[in-house]
Amino acid sequence: MPGKIYNVLFLCTGNSARSIIAECVLNRLGRGRFVAYSAGSFPKGTVHPYALELLRRQDYPTDELRSKSWTEFAKPDAPKLDFVFTVCDNAAGEVCPIWPGQPVTAHWGLPDPAAVQGDDAERRLAFAATLRMLHNRIAAFTNLPLKSLDKMSLQRRVENIGRRPPASPPGNL
Predict the structure, then answer these.
(1) Range of weakest confidence among 41-45, 73-77, 140-144
(2) What is the Cα–Cα distance from 168 to 111, expressed in whole angstroms?
(3) Number of structural domains in the chain
(4) Which of 60, 76, 128, 135 is the most buried (most CB within 10 A)?
């Protein structure tokens, strides 16, 4: 199906950092092929200020970002999801809504940068590391030959992306 645009949902418990960052990265790297969303099982209601600061510093658009519940994506009028990725261990273990259309799912767990203790510099470094790891995983995902993989092969490939240690991306991330 030429020109198909894939809808991807990134889930985390609070939807304030990791899933928000993943949404931004995929919307940039996958422009024209993917539309990314993020949500949480127990959304904080606000995006973490360090996440917003980092994303703005990297020239990601942030005006439309908000912390929201995953129930928004289980409604009949929600976008049909092709992929759902959990990016925190808590969300991976929770009972998720039934996603219409049976999207491909995988767990891409990462440490929570919002839980890092220390001074501002240490905490900002944790957010930068999260952005770097997500950038690498999402870059690998966007380079998959989606049209030529059957669903089982695709499932294995996206699961493997979450298992491998991320490398450093090019640029100043």
Answers:
(1) 73-77
(2) 17
(3) 1
(4) 135
